[in-house]
Amino acid sequence: MSYYERHIFFCLNKRDGTEASCALHDVELAYAHCKGRVKALGLNGPGQVRVNKAGCLDRCAGGPVAVVYPEGTWYTYVDRHDIDEIVERHLQGGEVVERLLLAPEVGR
Ligand code: FES
């Protein structure tokens, strides 16, 4: 059994120049909102859920991106409602949120 049941990483990276990067979106707010919701629902801690910041995950063209392990499910999101849905349906309920999945071919 792993230390956390689920682990979500938010890319907060800003790439140089005009390249697409997650930090061009409100990623700090999304990360903070997710962390707050997980805590408010009592999901945080060992055996449950961990929310972490990440550097570039090399899928910048689909940004902003977040990935949930152990499933390895990649998401893109727009607003707090999307984050709420990921928290409640996936991190809490174990159900993939199909409408927010990042297309498999999206890379840098
Ligand atoms: S900047 Fe977010 S995946 Fe590269």
General description of the model:
Strand 3 and strand 4 form a beta hairpin. The chain has a single domain, classed as Glutaredoxin. It has a four-stranded mixed β-sheet with strand order 2-1-3-4, covered by helices on one side. It has 108 residues and is an alpha+beta fold. The chain has two helices and four strands; from the N terminus they run E-H-E-E-E-H. Helices cover 25% and strands 19% of the residues. It is globular, with a radius of gyration of 13 Å. It starts with 5 loop residues before the first strand and ends in a 16-residue tail after the last helix. It binds FE2/S2 (inorganic) cluster (FES). The site of FE2/S2 (inorganic) cluster has 12 residues, from loops. FE2/S2 (inorganic) cluster binds next to loops.
